Structures are given as C-alpha cells and as structure tokens.
Amino acid sequence: MRIATPSSSLSSSGCSHFWSSARRSKRLATPEEKAYRDSTDLGLSRRLGVIDLVLLGIGASIGAGIFVVTGTVARDAGPGVTISFILAGASCVINALCYAELASRFPAVVGGAYLYTYTAFNELTAFLVFAQLMLDYHIGAASIARSLASYLINILELFPVFKDNIPNWIGHGESIGDVLSINILAPILLILLTLVLCLGVHESSIANCIMTVTKVIIVIIVIFAGAFEVDVSNWSPFAPNGLKSIFTGATVVFFAYVGFDAVANSAEESKRPQRDLPIGIIGSLLVCIALYIGVCLVITGMVPYNLLGEDAPLAEAFTSKGLKFVSVLISIGAVAGLTTTLLVGLYVQSRLYLGIARDGLLPSIFARVHSIRHTPIHSQIWVGLVASILGGLLDVRVLSHILSVGTLTGYSVVSACVVVLRWKDKKGSQVSSSAEREGVICLIVVALCGFATGLLYRYDASFIFLILTIVIAAGASAALVFRQVYANAPGFSCPGVPILPNICIFFNMFLFGQLHEEAWVRFVVLCIVMIGVYAIYGQYHANPSAEDNIYIEAPVEEDP
Asked: Which family would the database say this protein is a member of (predicted)?
C-alpha cells in the first residue's frame, strides 16, 4: 500500500489550487451593484462623446503607414491593391462588429479583450491575452516613438542651418553593437505625451482630436490633389501579378487598420458607452477604409505601379509631378499620424493595466486613480517609462517581425467571447458543461484550421489540403450553429452569430500563419513565462468576486 509523503501531498494541493484558480471567471453584476459603482468616485471620468471616440479610433489606426504601405504593397499587387484594402477592411469590419457587441455589453469598466476573456472563459486565459497584447503595445510604442523622432529630424533638416548638423544619437539613432541604439528625442517625446495623458482624458482627447483632424484633412488634400494627376491607363492591367498577389496584399494591409479596438478600452470614460462605443468602433474603421481606398486609387493612377518608390512612394509620386508642396504636407501628416497613434497606444496600455490590477493579477498600485485628474497616473507613468527605456536604448524596430501576435490573439479571442457569452445569456441560465465543452472544442478546431490553412497557403501546398482544412472548419461551424442555442445580446448585437465570429477566428488565425517563425516562438515562450508569473503571483492575489471590480453587463438602453 502506497503512503503519500508530505511533499507529494503538498504538490498535489498546489496543482489543485492552480487549476481551480486558473478556471475562475468573472460573474456579471446585478443592477444594484452597477448602481453602487456608478455612485462612487472610484472610477474614471466620463468625458468622451461619440465624436471623441471616432477620432480616437482614427487616431490609433492611421499613422504614417497610409503614406507608405499603400505604395509598397502596390508594387506587388498593382492597382489591385485597392481590392486588397477592401478585403482587409471587410475582415476588420467583422472583427469590429464583435468588439462593438462586447463594448456595448460591458460599458462600465475598462479592460477590452482582457475583460471579455475573463468573463467568457477564465482567469488564466485572460491573463495570457493581456500579456500578448501588452508586449505588442510596449514594443510598438517604442518603435513608433523612434519613427516619430526620425521624422521630426527629417523636417528640421529641410532648413539649411540644421542640414547634416544634427548627430544621429539625437533622433535617427546611434547604433552601439547589435542591440543598443541611443536615441535621445524618442524618450523626450514619450515623456511629453505621458504628461499630457496624466493631465486628464479631456485634455488628451483635445490633443488627439486636433492632430487627428489635421491628419485627416491632409490625407483628403492629398487625395484631391492627386486626383487631377491621375492617368486611368495606369490602372490597366488591374492585377498584373494575378489574384494571389491581391490576397497576399490583403494579409499585409490588414494591420494598417489595427487600432479601432482602442475605442473599446475607453468604456469607463465614455458619456453614453452603450450607444457610443459601437458607433466609435465601426465609424472610425469605415472612415479609415475610405481614406485608404482613396490613397490607393490616387497613387496607382498617378504613377505606373512598377515605378513606385520603396521608402516614400506617395511623396515621390507627387514630386515627380512637380507638386513638392504636397510632399511637405505628407511629412506633416506623417508626424501628426505617428503622434496620435503613439498617444492612443499609451492611453490604451494604461487602461489595460488599470483593469487587470483591479482584479489583483498585478500589484494594486496600477489600479489607483488620481482623485482630481481621474486618470490612472501610476499605470500611465509605468507604460511611459517602459516605452522610454526601450525607445531610448534599443533598436526595437528589428523586433517588428514579432509584433501583431497580440493583436491577432486578441481579435480571435474576442470573436470567441461573442459566441460563448451568447450561450451564457439564455434568460440568465447557464449552459450545461458538456454543451459548453463541445462548443469550445469547435471554436478551437476553427482556429487550428485557420492556422493550418495559413501555413498551407504560405508554403504553396496542394489545393486539396486547403479545401480539406476549410471543410473541417465549416463542419465545426455547422456544429456550433445546430447544436447550440443563442440568445440576443443586450445593446448592440453582432449579426450572424456564430458564423461571422467564426469567420473572424479563421481569418485571424490564417494571418497568424503568415507571420515570421520568430513570432510563433515569441507566442509560446511568452505564454510559458506568464503561466509561471501567474503560478507565483496571480493565482494568490486575484479576487474575481470583489464587489468593486465586478464586470457590468449593460441592460437594453432606452433613449430619453
């Protein structure tokens, strides 16, 4: 007969505690708890209207890339790059519909994808989603800050007094070995934007609105100025390298739309979140799609696609037509675009830290909100500090190929949350554990099929295998349609559940298969590391049942 030793008993108890903690999820609040939360002064200040939210989404989505990526992709796809942007935009619209439903459903607190995952799935999955998103945000903010610093130096060097007189370590970056790269201006810019965000959401919103409007006006001027120089013969042939180049271009330009999800993280600062958040998310995305299509048509109509430059294709196209003043406007627009993208990125990071710290998964200092400014100052300073260190000392642009993992992970999980929460919402009753388990398995099958299809497409596998993975994903989707019952969502409702969310998951994971191998390694390694962090800290400090951080589900809102 085997006798359990104290060490084995302790190990078994530890594993049991870890497993039970990891499977915890957030419960929905009662109307009384929601009323209590709204009556306290513990939250953020509701200052953002619908226009602010739309401009927030545009500010996060359109950076300097609109002046660059349109031309670089057009070199391969030709005038068909317009279709690439339409396809990618359509995919993002479906993702936006999923975000809009959940943002409308939980309008009381911040958290975004992390919040939704904690409610629909479990604590550990939410923690891992947060980690993947946050690494993207940290590296992305540092990279954007360095690009912004470089653009500002380029503008200064237009004046003869500064030409060739500014050392590289000030703005362009002075490399020291393979890793270090000194840049003084990038952290200064990050500190300034962090101070603006610490002042309050009203002040930072004004700054974002001014720069975003400036950026949009410049893009519109560029489109109209270029429209008079279009030669329609340049649009033929429309797809010189075939349909595959258009689809490949769509996978590349998909990331040009990323940013609309930032609106979901402003839930606690929106005046009428249940109504305005869906409008902000979808409205900002539609504006971005229209601007991207306009720039694509202009740039491919002005210059034959095979003559477009690589570094600054749009600026070079206007210069070739004798419109140098437009090139100057493009530089100004690029600076405004990078500034708003950086500003909104830092804003979103602090709100994610605020949400997860409220739940105890990070130290409580990140959950503190300034009593006068109503901003999470500690979280805001932390994200600014991390970005400043990365941007000032490291050439983080070499890490750009491991980005987008968090974005695709977040988008996929949010789409799955829409499906799962519809199961849990059948007149307040919980779905049976066996039915929920079957549904989650189907969602995982769809995700794996999307990833497999992406790999097969990437390595030019037989068309038969592509069809096979698509058929399997369709079968899993059919099981979700016919073997589950779905309730209507309160507030804004994503149409076509579960089909549209499944399409999101499949396409997002298809894109995941197009990323560099290092990105896949980063995903696995970060998950392992964060599971360790959760085992050491998170599982013992998390408090999903605390009354001051229960996630609020919105009732159906009636217009006054």
From this structure: Belongs to the amino acid-polyamine-organocation (APC) superfamily. Cationic amino acid transporter (CAT) (TC 2.A.3.3) family.
Q: How many Å apart are CA 450 and CA 440, to the nearest integer?
A: 15
User: Is the pLDDT reported for residue 9 higher than 70?
Assistant: no
Alpha-carbon span 475 to 361, nearest angstrom:
37
DSSP state of 515: S
Angle formed by the axes of helices 433-458 and 499-512, nearest 10°: 40
pLDDT of 283: 94
Contact at 8 Å (CB) between 477 and 499? Answer: yes
d(CA 198, CA 207) in angstroms, rounded, equals 13
Decide: 99 and 419 in contact? Cβ < 8 Å: no
Paired tokens of 105? 């459903």
* 548: pLDDT strictly greater than 70: no
pLDDT tens digits for range 208-232: 999 999 999 999 999 999 999 999 9
- Give the C-alpha separation, 526 to 464, whole Å: 34
Q: Are 41 and 52 in contact (CB under 8 A)?
A: no
- How far is Cα 99 from Cα 127, in angstroms, rounded to an integer? 19
Identify the burial level of 58 via C-beta atoms within 10 angstroms of its C-beta, where 0-12 means exposed, 13-18 middle and 19 or more buried: buried
CA dist., res. 313 & res. 305, Å (int): 10
Residue 260 is which amino acid?
F
- Could you count the other beta carbons within 10 Å of the beta carbon of residue 190? 29
| Chain center to CA of 216 | 20
- For residue 180, list its beta bridge partners: 176, 394
Separation between Cα atoms, residue 404 and residue 176, nearest integer Å: 27
Average pLDDT over residues 282-309: 91
pLDDT at 404: 84
Are 284 and 53 spatial neighbours (Cβ–Cβ below 8 Å)? yes
Q: Which of 344, 202, 272 is nearest to 49 (CA)?
A: 272
DSSP state of 183: -
Tokens 């994903």 found at = 473
Express each pLDDT in 521-542 by its tens digit.
Answer: 999 999 999 999 999 999 998 8
Distance CA 336, CA 55 (A): 13
Q: What is the pLDDT of residues 126-161, one digit of tens each?
A: 999 999 999 999 988 998 898 889 888 888 887 888
Token digits of residue 299 = 């740039």
d(CA 20, CA 130): 20
Q: How far apart are CA 250 and CA 87, in angstroms?
A: 6
| Structure token pair of residue 135 | 């690494």
Please, are residues 270 and 107 in contact by the beta-carbon 8 Å criterion?
yes
- Please check whether the domain covering 42-431+485-541 is classified as CATH 1.20.1740.10: yes
pTM higher than 0.70 for the full model?
yes
Check pLDDT > 90 for residue 380.
yes
Residue 29 has a pLDDT of 55
- Residue listed under structure tokens 């530890």: 14
Is the pLDDT at 560 greater than 50? The verdict is no
**Alpha-carbon span 362 to 134, nearest angstrom:** 13
Q: Find tokens 């603006």 and name the residue.
A: 196
Return the pLDDT at 33: 54
How high is the mean pLDDT of the chain?
Answer: 86
